[in-house]
Design a protein that fits this description.
- The complex is a heterodimer of chains A (about 350) and B (about 300).
- Chain A is mainly alpha-helical.
- Chain A has helices at about 15-35, 40-55, 55-80, 90-105, 115-140, 145-165, 200-215, 220-230, 230-235, 240-270, 280-290, 295-320, 325-345; strands at about 1-5, 345-350.
- In chain B, helix 1 (about 5-30) runs antiparallel to helix 11 (about 235-260), helix 10 packs across helix 11 and helix 11 runs antiparallel to helix 13.
- Chain B starts with a helix and ends in a 22-residue tail after the last helix.
- Classes of the chains: A mainly alpha (about 350), B mainly alpha (about 300).
- The interface between A and B is large, with 48 and 46 residues.
């Protein structure tokens, strides 16, 4: 028997979907091995995850609530990946957005919800955007590796958050808990039907639509795609990559920052250290799985929202820590990457002798 | 002097785990494979080192186990990136997530437990020199091994046949292939060896440095090591310099915190991360926009054997 590997020149949509589905099935199967190894019945664990996240109205609403920041962070990440600029800093930009809008509520409060929410949104956009643009500037100007700078800035952002919530922003009536006071009414986004799904979902969907049009249909989107896929060709075509790197990083950071604002004003309504649970990192998987397509991101984010809620359910019911979700995420990514090979190559087994 | 010597000694100790990781990553990258999973592999190494020492009572076996488990985990990275030609950036991130998750899931029952760990041994003779003695030669065995390792890695890379193959494969896989070298085999070997060293760096944290397991205890050291590889321009000797610089900042920060200060702890804890960015900017400004000296030209690029011309 021999194995023949040849490059594919085309792939049908159907084959592509099959490969992705197979990757996910394999990832969950190896996740089952991990659960088994820990002495947990994998079928029961997966059933509990699905029941908790998609099984009833409450679970479903929680899943949608988690989908909102995931969509925005994934769009942010996908935009930079389109230009092959590796923004791994969505987590930090998310935190910065939350910090900026909380600062606005704290120091410049106006009792008018239109003015207030607009100001909070803009400050979050700017804060996240500048946090990202700084790394973009370093890359554009001196070719500083953006993977490391954005990642280091995640650590700095989390410490900055701790500095404020353990320090001067702490609510004096919180009995020592590190959290700010609850936001006043006019600094909150509306929540629907007594669930935790908030109107931030409109931001998420609108940004997805805008990015779909701008990146997939517009001239600028074409430019950044060319810069990403073939920098030399982009240079010859007169595309200003330097400016675009900074702009892409600014926009990417701004979208993640806005996600932080939506999370604050819509869900938590106060700043506390545990609100950044790694959406910025999960976003990388989502963007990759959705092949950077803005509309596909909405759907994939929903699935990962379910994974998060399912993981929380697992935590409550089976006392498994949330890190089991991280393991599953790592496995999904491993298998997706492996599956990529079968997308680019056709592997066939030849049994007959020549 | 009484004030500075203990800080310098602590700098060497804090720098050692980063040094192991940096040396490991230099070997991996020299062969053209980018491994961004250092943070995850270090965490796995830290966990394995702790748990084996805890159960056997022997730090030696803890460290040995961490080395081999690190190699084993890196088989996944090697297989995906070398054999299946996967995107190396994303694969490294997957490794970080996986390692973080696995170590924190498995380690959750051991938080608060302590092990005897490795103790310091002053080298007779050398340790009695003023300043240099207490700073460099009154440390533990793993620190002494790391001194040797700097030269061993340098020797391996620049004075052996394997090192020549490694550099050839990292710079120009096509020419290496034409010269009859198996690109995959050399890359596998470098990636696995490097992964073992990175994992050993993680194990140093539990077995030697803190004698206990803390969730997420690497706190970005893996990423700092990735940055140090660039700072070191892939040179093991400069890697040592960079590692001790970061060890120094960590030691200084702990000293300031212990000495009672009005500067809030989170701001002090930012120092290593800000320094990482600063160091990268400085090195990039000096090297200009062109290809960095010492950077393997095929770094991060998969080798398509069937597409050679």
């Amino acid at each position: 028997m021999r194995i023949k590997i040849e490059k594919r020149f085309y792939i049908t949509k159907w084959q592509e979907v099959c490969i992705i589905l197979a990757s996910i099935v394999l990832a969950f199967s190896s996740g089952a091995l991990v659960f088994h190894f820990l002495g947990v019945d994998p079928l029961e664990a997966y059933k509990m995850m699905i029941d908790g996240s998609l099984g009833d109205f409450y679970g479903m609403s929680e899943t949608v609530a988690k989908t909102i920041p995931l969509i925005m962070c994934s769009l942010a990440v996908a935009l930079s990946f389109t230009m092959v600029v590796w923004n791994i800093g969505a987590e930090g930009q998310f935190v910065l957005g939350a910090l900026a809008c909380t600062a606005f509520v704290r120091y410049l409060y106006v009792d008018n919800f239109v003015v207030m929410l607009a100001c909070m949104g803009i400050s979050a956009l700017l804060a996240g955007g500048l946090w990202g643009a700084f790394a973009g500037f370093l890359k554009a100007r001196w070719n500083v590796n953006e993977i490391i700078t954005t990642l280091m800035m995640n650590y700095v952002a989390i410490l900055l958050l701790q500095y404020f919530v353990y320090g001067s922003w702490r609510d004096p009536t919180s009995l020592g808990f590190p959290m700010t006071p609850l936001f006043p009414k006019s600094a909150r986004l509306h929540q629907f039907f007594s669930t935790r799904v908030h109107s931030g979902i409109f931001f998420a969907v609108i940004i997805a639509l805008i990015l779909w049009i701008v990146v997939r249909k517009g001239v600028w989107g074409y430019e950044i795609r060319v810069s990403g896929q073939n920098p030399k060709a982009a240079d010859y075509a007169g595309i200003r990559s330097t400016r675009n790197v900074i702009l892409v990083m600014f926009l990417s950071g701004a979208i993640a920052g806005l996600a932080g604002m939506a999370e604050m004003a819509g869900l938590h309504r106060r700043l506390q250290p545990g609100f950044a649970v790694g959406y910025g990192y999960t976003a990388i998987i989502i963007a990759w799985l959705a092949r950077l397509h803005p509309l596909a991101i909405i759907f994939v984010s929903f699935l990962f929202g379910a994974l998060f809620v399912g993981g929380e359910n697992l935590q409550i019911a089976m006392r498994l820590p949330l890190s089991s979700v991280q393991i599953l995420q790592g496995l999904i990514l491993f298998f997706l990457l492996g599956g990529e090979f079968f997308r680019n190559y056709r592997v066939s087994f030849i049994f007959r002798k020549r | 002097m009484e004030l500075i010597v203990p800080i310098l000694a602590a700098a060497v100790r804090s720098g050692t785990p980063i040094l192991y990781a940096t040396l490991g990553e230099i070997m991996t990258e020299k062969s053209g494979v980018l491994n961004l999973g250092l943070e995850g592999i270090m965490l796995i190494g830290a966990y394995v080192g702790f748990i084996v020492t805890y159960n056997t009572g022997s730090p030696f076996w803890g460290l040995v186990a961490a080395f081999f488990v690190g190699m084993g985990v890196n088989v996944v990275h090697a297989f995906l990136c070398i054999s299946l030609k996967a995107n190396q950036v994303i694969c490294g991130l997957a490794m970080t997530m996986f390692g973080t998750g696995v170590s924190s899931l498995l380690g959750r029952g051991y938080v608060g437990e302590t092990i005897a760990g490795l103790q310091a041994v002053a080298l007779p003779g050398l340790s009695s020199f003023p300043v240099v003695g207490p700073v460099f030669f009154s440390q533990d065995v793993m620190v002494y091994i790391s001194y040797l390792l700097v030269f061993v890695v340098w020797f391996l890379m620049y004075r052996t046949k394997f090192g020549l193959m490694m550099r050839a494969v990292g710079d120009s896989p096509l020419s290496a292939e034409a010269a009859g070298i198996s690109v995959s085999a050399v890359r596998y070997a470098s990636t696995l060896l490097g992964g073992g060293l990175v994992s050993l760096g993680g194990a140093y944290l539990t077995v030697v440095y803190s004698h206990m397991w803390v969730d997420l205890m690497t706190a970005g050291r893996g990423w700092i090591a990735v940055a140090l590889v660039i700072f070191a321009i892939w040179n093991p000797l400069r890697a040592a310099l960079g590692s001790y610089l970061f060890g120094g900042v960590e030691a200084l920060q702990m000293r300031i915190q212990a000495g009672g200060t009005t500067i809030p702890a989170p701001l002090l804890m930012m120092l290593p991360y800000i320094l990482t960015i600063a160091v990268l900017v400085v090195i990039s400004v000096f090297k200009g926009r062109g290809r960095m000296l010492g950077a393997p030209s095929a770094l991060g690029l998969p080798f398509y054997r069937e597409e050679r011309e």
